[in-house]
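yo

u said u wanted the structure for the complex thing, so here. seqs first:
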Amino acid sequence: MSATADAGTRTAPAAEVVVSLRGASKAYGPIQALDDVTLELRAGEVMCLAGENGAGKSTLIKILTGAIRRDSGEYAVDGRDVGSPSPSEARDAGIGVVYQELSLLPDLSVEENLLMGQLPARRGVTRPAELRRRAAAMLERVGLDWLDPGTEVGTLSLAVQQLVEIAKVLGASPKVLIFDEPTTALSESETKALLARIHQLRDEGHAIMYVSHHLEEMFEIGDRVTVLRDGGLVTSQPMSDFDHDSLIASMVGRKIESLYPATSRTVGDPRLQVRGLLPEGAAAPVSFEVRAGEIVGIAGLLGSGRSELLRAIFGADPVHGGEIEIDGVRVAGGNPRRAVQAGLGLLTEDRKRLGLLLELSIRENASLAHLDEISRFWIVDRKRERTIVDRYLGGLKLRAGSWEQPVSSLSGGNQQKVLLARWLATHAKVLMFDEPTKGVDVGAKAEIYKVIGDLAAQGLGVVVVSSYLPEVLGLADRVLVMREGTVAGELPAEGATEEDVLALASTSTSTTTSDGAAS
Amino acid sequence: MRFLKNNQPAPAAAGAPAGAAAGAPAEREERILTFGDVFGRDAGGLIVLLVLFGGMTLASSEFLTGDNLANLARQVAVFGIIAVGQLLVILTAGIDLSVGSVLGLTGAITAELLVHGVGIVPAILAGMAAGTAIGLFNGTLVAYGKLPPFIVTLGMLGIARGVVLVLTDASTVQPLPESFGNIANGDILGLPNLLWMFLAVVAIASFVLRRTVFGRYVYAVGSNPESARLAGVPVTRVLVAVYAIAGLLAAVGGVLFTSRLNAGVPTAGTGYELNAIAACVIGGASLFGAKGGAFGAAAGALIVGTLNNGGNLLAINSFYLQIIIGALILAAVAFDQWQGRRSPGS
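structre next:
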């Protein structure tokens, strides 16, 4: 190994290999989820795992954590063969995981969560003082020394919960830390703080694997990157060998020309008008309009009230006043059913909790919102139902064996298409998208962007909320920036930079617009 | 339960998706026409029922006789009708513990009115109105008051039974007109009236659940009420309607029960709520909602009835029958769980 000291590059000097997985394969029935993949994690290094949905990332993580058994291949930690470990054996071998969906128990206190399964006790009676002492020590490691260990976890923000989760994982003194989409629910600044924390853990000598859909984060934090595609290993090399486009090309296996659709659309009359709407917790009333053929983006930090605004417009939550008009006709508030009948559609952020009916079939999910139109005397015309589902789901290139299979069997991107079809079928006049590409892979993202662009081109009014700024700027014609539950300012998307948006979203002393109604 | 009726991939039956064939077809799971495709969501119970019928026919020469089957139908009909109402509630992930008491109360109301000289039709209608009103009350507390269904209907179980006992002074209400007794004890085309009514209720419920907008909404609410609300489903109205229907069907059961004995019995229907829940569960319904069907519930009711009937014919101690029915419930749920784990994503 030649000791060339390139100026400016971060080279891990002959780092010790902590985890070595060789030739790992896993098949689910006829589907080869992982095929002969080799992976090495080294101490003091952040390895990013990149790939589209279905590329085998989750399978790989599950093999590492012992959640599933691999079909073949070797798995060694610290040079010692661990065979096919169970989850607890993997943990004992030094593998720690921070999952996207946190494993904390919301009704219990922080300290109980941290030491659950190993609560300090004497003859079955817990020792509160010892519990508190150990919990405080664990919290200190992640910079949460200000947090009272007796706090109920459910009352904490997601970012703090994430840190508690990390503290919990660190409690088992792992050699390897795996982060599975840790920033999905975090704001920009919280993400930065988390990445800094991960850097620190790396510098303490942990081997780290980082999985995310956000390429920017990978470039910021990664030392090396492993790319998976269709269950196979594409490459594993230093992050600095890639740029944004080449990494996408490597993940997708083809070059994606332009992610965002062209913006040459004719803008017509106002379709959605919001006047003086005052959602719960808003600092000031919100007024704006969306015209036919227009895509309006809504940006803002996490907790700035973006989703709440959409829900208020849709009538899903009670409001303290204001009017909504669709094509000049007033919509009675407070009832999603009337909003749907008036021509509004809302694709919610949390598909599983607020969108899909997991027990039901793809067909039933897609047709739910327009059953009234395809039925006579309350009897569903099943032929028309099938034609309509065929038309919209077929048009979205949904990949499924049959419309009768349960919607829960689909991948995230395809589930999103089912929800999209649900609203397309209602002939909505205004569609609102809340984080339309959350948890959706690059290829499906491009398709969803294209659909959104096509819808606007057909004359719909479109509202897109996203915490991913390039997406808002790339898709929208205008961007509304939110802060404290209300609209803090508006920018034309063309020419606006992410910095402009962030400046509007985070200044607390408002120097920009719309401050008249504050008192 | 997957039954390989044939080994051909199902042709047009699956409504061949237009844009589906993008991937290599060989990678997809091969479609096989299953028993479930034909009978929808309620296949499992029917199979058990057929097996049970076959077994009983072999075991006892008296089982497959017209008299015995008519007897079986009379035993099962009342509680099968209640089970269908219970099923609607269970499909919305709720539960109705009050149906047994409502059966008793509505039967007693009808009987009291008859004894006091009210005409048969008005008396029956009054009983059914009372049942529907109680259901509406339950549903309103559940849907608008956001109270847990278990608690609401547990309270109503006590209230309704108490009202019956006060109303009747805990004594049997009779004599009732002869013609009223004919309603449940008569025959049409050689089959007992009760059986016809049971079949009618099951057929209507199955049609409503499978083919109407309301039926879809019931499954949607049971699957995820918030998702359903955001898709424009009138969730609260669906919930109220479901409890009202359960109350109405309990009242139908009450009237039929009273007619069959031709007397108002204050303790009528005691424990029927648990039998109705058992029938739904054995018929494949999930207490978490959105799973099950009317034929399943009917099959569940028939399975329990056939076990009791068969037990009598074979002179099996009825205490053992209780054990068997309890074990059957556990087996049905265990089977459901096992299936859920096998199928992807649930």
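Chain B touches chain A at residues 14-20, 22-23, 26-29, 31, 37, 211-214, 216-217, 219-220, 222-224, 226-234, 289-291, 343-346 (CB under 8 Å). The beta strands of chain B are 187-188, 191-192.
cya
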